[in-house]
Amino acid sequence: MEQHLPDWILHCNAADATETSPLSADVYAIRGKSAWWIFDVGANDAAVNFINSLDKNLPKNVILSHFHHDHAGNLSQISWNQLYVGKETWKHVHAGNVIENLFELDDGLHIQIAPIPNSHAKGSLIFMAAEYAFLGDANYPMVGHGKPDAYNVQQLFSQIQFLKNLNAKYFLISHKRFIAREKFSVLQFLENVYAQRKPNENWILCDEK
User: Fold this and answer.
1) What are the TM regions of this chain, as residue ranges (predicted)?
2) Which residues pair with 181 in a beta bridge?
C-alpha cells in the first residue's frame, strides 16, 4: 500500500534531464521544532527555488544522501546551517559533518541519520524522521553497468538486514512518484532481487526495475 505524506514533509519533484536543465533528484524538507531538515538538494533551478523559499526563521540542516550530481549539485547555490554527509560524499563537496555511525536527536520529531549498505553509491546515507525513512537511491543497482541491473550480493544482503531493523513504517525513494511506500513492499522487491543470486557469484544481474 502507498501512503500520502503529512503536511510537515514538503517536496520538490525529481526532474528528468532536458536540453536546458540537468537531471535532478527529489528534494524533501522536513519541518522540525527548531530547524528544517532538508534531504538532498537537487541539481536544477526548481530545487534551488524550493529550498530558498522555505521559512527563513528556521535554520536549514542539509543531509546529502550521496555524492551524485543530481542529488548534491545545488549545494553551492543554497544557504545551510549544518551539513551531514557520508565519507565518500565529503571527498566531493569538502564540507559538512561526516556520518559514519548512527546520529540521532529529537527536534519535535525523532531524527536519525545513518550510513546504509547499498550497490548504488559508496557511503550513502539514509535519513529518518518519525516513521518516515528517506532512502535516496540506495535501493537502486550499481551505476554505469547498463542492463541488466547489477546488485552486489553482500551489499544487498546487508541492506535488507539494515532495513528490516529500522523502526520506520514508510520508505521514500528518489526519482519515484511522490508517495511513501510501505516498508514491506520495498523489502519485498529487494528480497526478490536477492533471490536471483547464483552460487559463487558476487553480483546479481536482473532485469527488474
Assistant:
1) none
2) 2, 171
